[in-house]
Design brief:
- The protein has 170 residues and is α+β, with helices and mostly antiparallel strands.
- It has 5 helices and 5 strands.
- The chain has a 5-stranded mixed beta sheet with strand order 2-1-5-3-4, covered by helices on one side.
- α2 crosses α5.
- The longest helix has 16 residues.
- It is globular.
- The structure holds FE2/S2 (inorganic) cluster (2 copies).
- One FE2/S2 (inorganic) cluster (FES) binds next to loops.
Length: 170
């Protein structure tokens, strides 16, 4: 008995049968057990957003999530964005607007953007939404607030905001 727990992880439409130490984070599981290294480790403590992936369509920090808690949910990582309708548009807009420099934060930014646009479409307010009775326009202030959990050490924020604005307005 090694204390490992059997789980079935569904990532990018593929099922993986694994036996994991319950202390393994989803981030380490993706990178080290499944060789899906597009998801990046920045801080490993929930502060930078580099590890953002989608779980049942919601954005989460994979570094804070035990992999064994993800048994049976649908996980989408940056590797699947090329075949994802909205993800493709977001990636193209990041390219068009120079929304990255070193690219280390970019996979997290793109996953976060895809979920954020869905949150906005469903009428969810942000901390800067003033009128909670109306759907908020996706202004630059709204975009910056809704993306505040994704840091970029290169400071590519202007390009990131322009890219998100373009996709939101399309
Ligand atoms: S690596 Fe997960 S939030 Fe920074
Ligand atoms: S592009 Fe380098 S950290 Fe964001």
């Amino acid at each position: 008995m090694n204390g490992h727990i059997p789980i079935c992880l569904r990532v990018n439409g593929q099922a993986y049968e694994l036996s994991l130490d319950p202390r393994v984070s989803l981030l380490d599981c993706l990178r080290e057990h499944l060789d899906l290294t597009g998801t990046k480790k920045g801080c490993d403590q929930g502060a930078c957003g580099a590890c953002t992936v989608l779980v049942d369509g919601e954005r989460i920090n994979a570094c804070l999530t035990p992999a064994v808690q993800c048994d049976g949910v649908e996980i989408i990582t940056i590797e699947a964005m090329a075949g994802h309708e909205l993800g493709t548009k977001v990636q193209q807009a990041f390219l068009s607007h120079d929304g990255f420099q070193c690219g280390y934060c970019t996979s997290g930014q793109i996953c976060s953007t895809v979920a954020m646009l869905a949150e906005h479409r469903h009428g969810r307010p942000s901390a800067v939404t003033e009128d909670l009775t109306e759907p908020a326009a996706l202004t630059d202030t709204e975009i910056r607030e809704r993306m505040a959990g994704n840091l970029c050490r290169c400071g590519a924020y202007n390009g990131i905001v322009a890219a998100i604005r373009e996709v939101a307005e399309a």
